[in-house]
Design brief:
- It contains eight helices and two strands.
- It is mainly alpha-helical and about 240 residues long.
- A two-stranded antiparallel ribbon has the order 1-2.
- It starts with a helix and ends with a helix.
- Helices cover about 75% and strands about 5% of the residues.
- The protein is globular, with a radius of gyration of 20 Å.
- Helix 1 runs parallel beside helix 7, helix 3 packs across helix 6 and helix 7 runs antiparallel to helix 8.
- A hairpin with a 5-residue loop joins strand 1 and strand 2.
Length: about 240
Amino acid sequence: MTFTLLLGFFIGMTHALEADHLAAVASFSVRKRSLKDTLKQAYSWGMGHTVTLFLVVVPVFLFGGNISHTTEAALEGIVGLMLCYLGGSLVYRLRKEKVHMHVHSHEDGERHAHFHSHKDDAVEHSHSDHNHAHKAGVSPRALGIGLMHGLAGSAALLIYAQEVVEQKWAIVPYVFCFGVGSIAGMMLISKVISFPLHAVKERSSISFNGIRAVVGIATVVLGLKFTGSSLTALLG
């Protein structure tokens, strides 16, 4: 039993490394927030993810049911649309801040590009980076994203549970350990990603804006891939 619970915890940690989860972490981390707020976002995501797993996996497992491939594909499609929204909102924020790319040519023929914003940095700093008295607890937005990710991941977790959980009552501590592992994994990844991002932000706003643009576009592309795969599965 101890081995099963430890297995659930470590599978939960590795579950946080999946591409759609990494995209969510990256979108949290490049919104010019502090490290503390980024960790709050990751924790909120993990809480939502865990709540959904409890609501879906536990009753389905206890009643001996399964999640159909059609349902799984539909849920992954919803996650794909959500990723498109996350990436699109990042790109929209860049556009709103009038961030664009300049290409320069030097006398030796070398060309290079950089991202630039005409928005007043002082105004942006006063609104985005000022230390306001934020309320403690969870982020509703990140919590909602976690809830949706939990729906998409419920089918895979149910398969894992059916393979390793021998006694039905053990599904509750198993899902709990899996959820704690996913929270820990998401927070760890957020911390790892945030350190270099905040270092880049302090040194060069141009480079940071470039990273934000890349993350936004990559998240949209990943979302389109998920949505396309879902439609393919649903349409046979």
